[in-house]
Amino acid sequence: MNLTISGHHLDLTPAIREYVQNKLTRIKRHFDHVIDISVILSVDKLTEKEKRQKAEINVHIKGKDLHAESIAHDLYAAIDMLIDKLDRQVIKHKDRVQNHHSMAKRLPEEPVSATAS
User: Fold this and answer.
1) Of 19, 36, 68, 102, which residue is most buried, by most CB within 10 angstroms?
2) Rounded distance, CA 64 to CA 96, Å?
3) Largest distance between two CA atoms of the chain
4) H or E stretch at 4
5) CB atoms < 10 A from the CB of 103, how many?
6) Which residues pair with 4 in a beta bridge?
7) What is the pLDDT of residues 48-96, one digit of tens each?
8) Rounded CA gap, 35 and 40, in Å?
């Protein structure tokens, strides 16, 4: 699994990197077919009072690409909301994959009957 964490208009500290990596273990616990993860953390300074912390993530898993983003006044809160959104998407994708495979197993193959003439 490739993990890329980048920051726009902010310095990535080792504490932020470790926090993101610890939160991503939740995703790996639910679905282990993750190929690539790209996290972008940014700060939008609208005015001095209104600083928006934005967190985005792109996850490439087997068969699908997932994207989530969140905005908050605190970067750690934005990361928490981001992981919650991504977790719901991963669980939904996993359920779809499992239901698809179980439906294929439940449907019996129809026997080909020869017509008697």
Assistant:
1) 68
2) 12
3) 87
4) strand 2-8
5) 9
6) 38
7) 667 789 999 999 988 889 999 999 999 999 999 999 999 999 989 888 8
8) 17
